[in-house]
Amino acid sequence: MGAERTVVVNGVECRVIAVPAARALAEWEQHRRNAAQTGRYPLITDMEAIDSLNEMANGQVTPEYRTDAEQWLELRRLDVEAMLEEDSVEGEVIRGEFTECEYEHPGGPQLLVDTRTGRERTDILILLVPCGSGAEAMEVIGYGGWNDCPTPAAQGAMMRRWLERYGAEPVAIGRDTVECVVKRPPMTEEGSMELAWEHFLYCQDIIEQDTDTVGNLAGMMKGCPWWFFWWD
Predict the structure, then answer these.
(1) For residue 214, is pLDDT > 90?
(2) In this structure, what DSSP letter does residue 172 have?
(3) Are 120 and 21 within 8 A, CB to CB?
(4) For residues 217 and 6, what is the distance between their CA atoms, to the nearest angstrom?
């Protein structure tokens, strides 16, 4: 494991450690277990993501400016429903029906693998953010707010909601990706469809550029311990 050093992210002093990709998840778990004592929440990442956060310089989301998840989802729902109603046929296609997933669930963060070569990456870092939770970490580093990616305040709100409901926490962030580990994923068709709709509101690209329908995504979400999101 590399030496720990200081790095400034979104105007905030954090600690960062270089780790082999093969050890990154185990190192994340260790730092997560110690977060209550250290006061630092870990995120697996790379310098490209850190540089991007510094370029955006969103600033921290302080408690008085946090977003309510229910209100944010309702506003997103109204916008998306209006869009889908413009073409009712397209809307029904996007919603789709629940379809059982035929593939194995992922076993860890996709960020650890180079998509071009299929090999483990050699530039992985663990970022230690001075805060107590994954939701707060997203607010502190100012993640989001470009294109259709939710703002840092909305990121924090959704992470709090999903932690409470599913035991989900952010583990890895790329320049335009977020990955969460999930302790209590939905195990029913109804619960999976409800979650998949929230995922669509949070990140439309996972439907429009991957699963095609909310129903297909729901099949993938059923019992899945890892969530992956990306925004172009």
Answers:
(1) yes
(2) E
(3) yes
(4) 39
Tell me what percent of the residues of the chain surpass a pLDDT of 90: 82
> Does residue 120 carry a pLDDT above 70?
yes
Q: d(Cα 173, Cα 155) in Å, to the nearest integer?
A: 12
Alpha helix positions (H), 34-147: 35-38, 47-56, 69-85, 88-95, 134-140
Largest CA distance in the chain: 56
Task: Tell me if 138 sits within 8 A of 170, measured CB to CB.
Answer: yes
| Per-chain mean pLDDT for the chain | 93
* Phi, psi angles (nearest 5°) of residue 70: -60, -45
CA distance 107 to 149: 25
Total-model pTM: 0.94
Rounded to whole angstroms, the Cα distance separating 195 from 148 reads 19
Cβ partners under 8 Å of residue 73, min gap 6 = 198, 201
Burial 17-53 (b: 16+ CB within 10 A, else e): bbbebeebbebbeebbeebeeeebbbbbbbeebbebb
Instruction: Count how many residues are written for the chain.
Output: 232
Predicted local distance difference test score (pLDDT) of residue 2: 66
Phi, psi dihedral angles at 14 (to 5 degrees): -125, 170
End-to-end CA distance of the chain: 32
